[in-house]
Fold this sequence. Notes:
The protein is mainly alpha-helical. The protein has helices at 13-33, 42-50, 52-74, 82-99, 103-115, 125-150.
Amino acid sequence: MTGQDDMLFSIPESGWWKIAVAATAFFLLAMRALPYGLKIPAAVRAEWAEQGRRRTWALYLLTPLVAGGVLAISLLRPGPSSPILFLYSVAFAAIPLAVFPVRGRMLRAYLAQRGAPDAPEKPDWLSAAWIVAVLSVVLLGAVIALMSATYDPGS
Length: 155
């Protein structure tokens, strides 16, 4: 394997590792920042602040550990790791971007459920459909880009 084989979109494999780390950092910061700017009732905000240590620990420690484990298992296959790192980076960057536009709807659904705990849970279908649609389009686009970048008409 030559050094040229380790390139994807003219970025070396070491660059994809840096991009994957940056995508993970973006994911962590963006998920933490999602509630900012929303009108959250004081009681809920106080409860969330009380639970803040556990959530912060889970977000900043468990997320990279689980993501690193999944990435390490995926990289056990032979060949360059750039395609896996590309897909990983796209997925981690896309999740907060998909959730951001519907975060207000999701908060309203959470507050409605919290206000009537005995009522059956009703999922917000519009939010779920939006998130699934955005992530599907992003990942489909990433797979098409990856396939076109690695396609060799000579083989």
